[in-house]
Design a protein that fits this description.
This protein is mainly beta. It contains two helices and eleven strands; from the N terminus they run αββαβββββββββ. The protein has three domains: 27 residues; 67 residues, Type Iii Antifreeze Protein Isoform Hplc 12 (Alpha-Beta Complex), CATH 3.90.1210; 51 residues, Roll (SH3 type barrels), CATH 2.30.30.760. 14% of the residues are buried.
């Protein structure tokens, strides 16, 4: 009897805390849904196409989300690339779209290191593909390898 009374009081307290504009929201209806803004394709796009601003519109939608964490809200932006064929009206989300590769494996890269006014610039060969902000290995010669972060097209900043 006591646990039932505590359950009723807890539910009433939650309903009082969920009052918006003088109306109580139904906890059952709101549970498990989240409002998100995602990009939606305006037309069909083939695999490997670079996305332009005219290729998508941002759409507000409500999704079922029963987890405690927030859903992925990273938006595809102009300059990203389709990794598979995208249908018209489809939401542009990973893994269907991804940032464009700035550094290709095996390409010549410029390596930057700076400490105050001291700046060092080297050249090397990228050991992996990388998008903006991703880690990149750079081979300077047969025995030396450096690790850095992709900061631009064929440009790496040492960590």
């Amino acid at each position: 009897m006591t646990s039932l009374l505590l359950g009723i009081l807890a539910t009433a307290l939650l309903l009082m805390l969920n009052v918006t504009d003088g109306r109580a929201q139904s906890l059952a209806a709101a549970r498990g849904t989240v409002r998100v803004t995602w990009p939606r394709a305006v037309h069909a796009m083939p695999r490997g196409q670079s996305i332009a601003a005219s290729d998508y519109v941002l759409v507000d939608t409500v999704i079922a989300w029963p987890w405690n964490s927030q859903p992925d809200t990273v938006h595809a932006i102009a300059g990203w690339v389709t990794r598979r064929a995208i249908a018209a009206g489809e939401f542009l989300r990973a893994p269907g779209v991804a940032p464009a590769t700035l550094i290709a494996m095996g390409s010549a890269v410029k390596v930057l290191w700076q400490d105050g006014s001291l700046r060092l610039t080297l050249t090397g060969t990228a050991t992996n593909n990388a998008v903006l902000g991703a880690p990149v290995g750079v081979r300077i010669d047969k025995n030396r390898r450096l690790d850095g972060i992709a900061v631009g097209p064929n440009t790496v900043r040492l960590r």
